[in-house]
Amino acid sequence: MHLLLVDGSAYIFRAFHALPQLNRKSDGLPVGCVQGFCSMLYKLTEDLKGEDAPTHMAVIFDHSGKTFRDDIYTEYKAQRPPAPVELVPQFPLTRAATRAFSIPSIEMEGWEADDIIATYARLAREAGGKATIVSSDKDMMQLIEPDGSIRMLDTIARPGQPPLRWIGMDEVFKKFGVTPDKVIEVQALCGDSVDNVPGVPGIGVKTAAELINTYGTVENLLEHADEIKQNARREKLKANADLALVSKRLVTLSQDVPVELDIDALIRQPMEPSNLFPFLKAMEFATITKRLSGKLEANPDDFEADPEYAATAVPGAVGFDNAARAESRAARHEATGRSNAATVAHAAAEHARVRAIPFKPEDYEIIRDAAALQRWIDAIEMTGHVATDTETTGLDNQTADLVGLSFSIAPGTSAYLPLGHTDGEADIFGGGGLVEGQMDIRLALDMVKPLFADPSILKIFHNAKYDIGILARYDVAVKSVDDTLLLSYALDGPQFNTMGELGEHWLGFAGQSIKDLIGSGKKQITFAQVKIEDGARYAAEDADMTMRLWQVLKPRLVAENMTTLYETIDRPLAPVLARMEGRGVNIDRAILSRLSGEFAQRAAAFEAQAYELAEQTFNLGSPKQLGEILFDKMGLEGGTKTKTGAWSTGADVLEDLALKGVPLARTIVDWRQLNKLRSTYTDALPAYINERTGRVHTTYSQHSVLTGRLSSNDPNLQNIPVRTEDGRKIRSAFVAAPGKILVSADYSQIELRVLAHIADIQALKDAFEEGLDIHAMTASEMFGVPVEGMPSDIRRRAKAINFGIIYGISAFGLANQLGIGRGEAGDYIKTYFERFPGIKDYMEEQRRKVKEDGHVSTIFGRRINFPNAKSHNPSERAFVERASINAPIQGSAADIIRRAMIRMEPELNKARIDADMLLQVHDELIFEVPLGTESAAIPVIKRVMEGAAEPAVRLTVPIQVDANAAGNWDEAH
DNA sequence: GCAAGGACGTA
DNA sequence: GTACGTCCTTGCA
């Protein structure tokens, strides 16, 4: 008899740390360890042949919870960190894998796997057989027998080593310096920091082995302790005799576990295809499935993936396709709802654990010299990850100066490194000198630089893009980043923005407000002027808070299937945006200044005209005063009121009045237009030119928009005018730098194409495939007019309907847009749905989904939440319905361009094209390239943009990108 | 000095 | 009918 005992828990942990954890299944669940585990089980059956072939087999796991060792020594394994988030969901899966291979999976409450293994090994030996323990855990070495009846086998794959390595007497002696029967004696003395076995302080393996080889056992050693010559050693032993004895009990494996299955129950069973393949298919393990199908002579296609473990959402099938697929998806969702229970529970437990840790500002450290900084760097390298934050003199990372850095390696363990605090009164030259007690900024940055560049150390920021931008200006590159702001965005959307809001919500503590430190308004100071001690408390708390939020939010990623979205779309985009912001865009100050004068003059003329027509002066910028003049004083008919009871004076109202012969209305419309262009663009933009770079640097927000779009602010470069002739003059002030040229590339009709894909509308898809004018085609389908020679008004109506569809159409809105009656608009919509019934199905599906789940999704799995979906207010509910129809369309298009942006720079580099991506305007990317290289750049840019959905989603419509080059943005567009 | 509302620029 | 940000006025602190 040969019993093979696999130490399942040890294998998973060792494999997790020994192998790169790259494998995930299609819903983002990490399964690298499960895969390694399955390969190992398969390999064992392949490699253990002849006399090594086992006749009996079992896989043993640790049971969660307390064991008898916790009663002996309360600190046992107390310092062990919680299992890595990626690993937790894999625990139940390895049990399932064991069962799939028709092998008994054994775990027992109150016992460690090691004890169960020891017991079975003894039973096998007593029955006259032998046992092989598949493990490399040193704690098991005590079981090895010199006669070979109990052996160990290490199967963790390592480069350059044979796949299976036997551990016998020699290996044990090498490790402990004693024979296996003395291993527990040595361990009792030297202890084990991993399991927190105390041992005798100051005695290591070497000394312990020497002592045991002389005295045989711990007990005998303690009895003869007085004979030991070395003073220190003798005293340590005598003082810690109790610890040594307790340690021995801790490391001694119990061989008397009351096992439930007796050894006959462990006889090897043949693999059963109907057991095996459903699991392997659910895990999406193609290679091993293929190998086993050959071996078992079974066809895996005959089996369905086990619904309990299969992926929730297949990318490309998210959103709506047709009723049948939606149904099967719902079924899968249910199924994984169960299989994800462990990950959900883990996330909740982490939240509870972290929330319970109190904040202690008095524990924060201030790093004032190189020695202290080196200690922190060493600790960070040990930990492998660090929450970090930059403190600066302002909100704009293109102008703010670095004042300090904070680091946290665990909740409550945090430090501040002050670098640029100044004293004295600020003068016009930027303030007083540096305060004492700070490291030289260059020296400190040189010390932390390798840390930030080290890909094996994860840097956790809150809004990494800001800090990456600051650090880049100090020549510090950052690799391997997590971002609590983006984690929160992927999980909850733009619900929480600031760290204070996140802290308040998840930890019940908002943290110190920056206003308390620097004040606000006129009396506001910069962080550089804050006292170091005060700044330290704030900054260290920020890093501490970031670390806590990361520990709360990161596990939710797996539990809520958002890992792929976060890791492949949101997180990698941040450094791309940081570079775009850093590059800025060149604008021609002279053009804007000339336009400013022109607009001001023309506006003044309209102003004078307005006073004349109104027969009084008033503030043209005041809708209130205007409304009173038009509707009260002049007594015009048909005025409507806004929700606050004020007269409505929007452009559409004034336009109406103008047509009815009210010249004042036209004058106001024209004045407002010019005034808008002047105040928002020609006057404001030059003030944004950065002195250092001579360019305008916008700030993108990656976490503000419900649907996944970006937004742009300070200044907003996503709403530069284009529709009117005056507006385009402003656009022409965005110019390429000397020797360069601008390339503008925009997606053609991306949202309608996305709609055609998700709602699966064949007529629309065909039209795009054939390159038809989509609005004319719609008009022709709806009104039965041939495309050739179609009246422009008919096409205009169809265009409005197409846009209306994307916006979640209502008869009311369409009527408003087209200036027709509600009845007529309703008829249009009815006709449209008759011609494209799939669209109606899509809309109903989204309405149903949002009501049921409170969210809808993009084709890449981005979730868009609508907490209002069940509102009792009918108009609020109608709004949610329209928005939930629009969100998957707008959001999927936004995901596509995000993916294009992430891939753009590597692809341009690969093609050896020197092109700088400067701006994104939702469906358009603007680049600056050396003059003459535009014709080489454009094909690459188009290829990346057009293929951006692949391979995650195979779109069923062609994507078209139009690109042009010119010296300014107006002509390139 | 700040928040809300109205208006208007973009996709 | 969707999604944003900015400027200006108004009203209140």
UniProtKB/TrEMBL annotation:
Entry's InterPro entries?
A: 3'-5'_exonuclease_dom, 5-3_exonucl_a-hlix_arch_N, 5-3_exonuclease, 5-3_exonuclease_C_sf, DNA-dir_DNA_pol_A_CS, DNA-dir_DNA_pol_A_palm_dom, DNA/RNA_pol_sf, DNA_polI_H3TH
Q: Where is the DNA-directed DNA polymerase family A palm domain?
A: 727-933
Where would I find the 5'-3' exonuclease domain in this sequence?
1-269
Q: What is its EC number?
A: 2.7.7.7
Single GO MF annotation = DNA-directed DNA polymerase activity
Q: What Gene3D superfamilies does its record include?
A: 3.30.70.370, 5' to 3' exonuclease, C-terminal subdomain, 5'-nuclease, Ribonuclease H-like superfamily/Ribonuclease H, Taq DNA Polymerase, Chain T, domain 4
Protein name per its UniProtKB record: DNA polymerase I
Q: Which organism is it from?
A: Devosia litorisediminis
Q: According to its UniProt entry, what is the function of this protein?
A: In addition to polymerase activity, this DNA polymerase exhibits 3'-5' and 5'-3' exonuclease activity.
